[in-house]
Specification:
Blueprint lengths: L8 E5 L2 H4 L40 H15 L3 E5 L2 H4 L10 H16 L3 E7 L5 H7 L6 H16 L6 E5 L9 H5 L10 H25 L4 E8 L2 E3 L4 H23 L5 H8 L10 H7 L4 E6 L3 E3 L33 H15 L3 E5 L9 E3 L2 E3 L3 H19 L4 E7 L19 E3 L11 E3 L1 H11 L8
Parallel strand pairs: 1-2, 1-12, 2-3, 3-4, 4-5, 5-7, 6-8, 7-9, 9-12
Antiparallel strand pairs: 10-11, 13-14
């Protein structure tokens, strides 16, 4: 018998800005993604430029029906997608929403329902409306709380009978490392004070609690979670100072889930705030809101682990990840330098569950790789055994965590259909089970092809994970 629960939610995950395209269709406004053609960590342009692959992405906007058919063929129980904030409120601060944008997601949810696929919706996935960035400096401004709450209330009401599972912010802790992509903060990172950065963090956390409150009032059956970037760290040596470096690194991330779940700022952050002259400005009602409207579950992305040391300058720094860290000599790396650590996923699951004792959801995990489309007697495919190996080993560790007693709601692999990379804005960095004919030059037919991993994942879902031991 499978170790996975009978109601385990198998599926895949995407983000509107990396998937939909149609950046200027049906009244959509610009988002921060439309001015970062080199990826979320790259330079900002004055406006959309032809080299920004996200403008067309893989055109899910016009291909969603055929894509959902393929998801259904794999047996998806859930599909994680985000709503593009600027498709609903083009500038982000309007009073009335854009009906065409609302209707698009109605159509997508109706199509998913035809195949019995539950939507898992991220309310804000690196898609702050560009106007909010330029006019208000993004989440550095408290006014965004009200704009976000109005947006969240609008979609909660519209889709209250179509969507059960919600995430408030994607990788909310990433704002510390990518303030423009994650928080729409236009101030250059080198000029952004820690005071202003952590005040922006506070605004997002309050907004998340407010959205949770609003959502539960609209539909008490909503399951609303937070979403963090999980990255476990190992000490480079047994030196206690290296272990202390690990603790300090991991506390930067735990801060976000601790507040979402426990409803208050933890004691360990107070020393950091004191030593860095940070004083969080709490408006009236903030503490009560955080305390009374905590999340129903914790979701996270997991791609890699890092190592830490008290003297990091003596080691080589890992490549590819958003948070930084030291290369682990015991681990192999992907083509983009992301270290591959299946056991780390089991550790994350156990650490989160021991800490919070509420359900967990793995909503991103996968391998970015350069795929080659090849012709066979049955058509075209990609022989991505490397992806199958990566996912099999990670999912086996998820099974081990289930045996450990961890309550896991589901697993949505990242980029279940090829999309544009968030970190590099490339299409050649592919994650999907479905190959999309489009390249880094913006050329291609957008035709979809099943990779070898398509049938592998189909078998995993059909057997509820039993095939992982074959």
């Amino acid at each position: 018998m499978s170790v996975f629960p009978e109601n385990f939610l198998w599926g895949g995950a995407t983000a509107a800005n990396q998937l939909e395209g149609a950046y200027d269709v049906d009244g959509k406004g610009l988002s921060v993604q439309d001015v970062t053609p080199d990826g979320g960590m790259g330079p900002i342009t004055d406006g959309p430029t032809p080299d920004n692959l996200k403008l067309e992405a893989v055109d899910f906007y016009h291909h969603y029906k055929e894509d959902i058919v393929l998801f259904a063929e794999m047996g998806f129980k859930v599909f994680r997608l985000s709503i593009a904030w600027s498709r609903i409120f083009p500038n982000g601060d309007e009073t009335e929403p854009n009906e065409a944008g609302l209707q698009f997601y109605d159509d997508v949810f109706d199509e998913l329902a035809k195949y019995g696929i539950e939507p898992l919706v991220t309310i804000s996935h690196y898609e702050t409306p560009l106007h909010l960035s330029k006019e208000y400096n993004g989440w550095a401004n408290r006014k965004l709380i009200d704009f976000y709450a109005h947006y969240a209330e609008t979609i909660f009401k519209r889709y209250k009978d179509k969507v059960k599972y919600w995430l408030t912010f994607n990788e909310v802790n990433s704002v510390l490392h990518a303030p423009f992509m994650s928080g729409g903060i236009l101030t250059p990172p080198e000029e952004l004070s820690k005071q202003d950065l952590y005040q922006a963090v506070h605004h997002e956390l309050v907004a998340s609690s407010l959205a949770t409150k609003i959502g539960h009032e609209i539909n008490p059956n909503f399951k609303i979670g937070c979403m963090v970037l999980a990255m476990p760290a190992y000490p480079m040596t047994p030196d206690p100072l290296d272990q202390l470096a690990v603790r300090e690194f991991e506390n930067q991330n735990y801060l976000f889930s601790d507040i979402h779940v426990r409803g208050k700022y933890p004691n360990y952050i107070k020393r950091y705030f004191d030593e860095n002259n940070i004083t969080i400005d709490f408006a009236e009602g903030d503490k009560q809101l955080l305390a009374e409207h905590t999340v129903d579950f914790v979701s996270f992305s997991y791609y890699m682990s890092v190592a830490q040391a008290h003297n990091p300058e003596e080691y080589s720094t890992g490549k590819g990840n958003i948070m930084g860290g030291i290369s682990n000599p015991y681990l192999e790396s992907s083509e983009w330098g992301w270290q591959i650590d299946p056991v780390g996923l089991r550790l994350v699951l156990n650490d989160f569950y021991d800490r919070y004792q509420i359900p967990l959801f793995i909503v991103e995990n996968g391998l970015g790789a350069k795929d080659e489309l090849v012709e066979t007697k049955n058509g075209y495919t990609v022989n991505d055994d490397y992806r199958i190996d990566y996912m099999q080993k990670h999912l086996q560790q998820v099974g081990e965590a289930v045996k450990d007693g961890v309550d896991i709601m589901g697993y949505t692999s990242w980029g279940c259909i090829d999309l544009v990379s968030a970190s590099t804005a490339q299409l050649s960095k592919r994650y999907g089970f479905i190959y999309v004919d489009r390249d880094d030059n913006g050329e291609g037919s957008f035709k979809r092809y099943k990779k070898k991993s398509f049938d592998w994942y189909k078998d995993v879902i059909a057997s509820n994970g039993e095939s992982l031991d074959d």
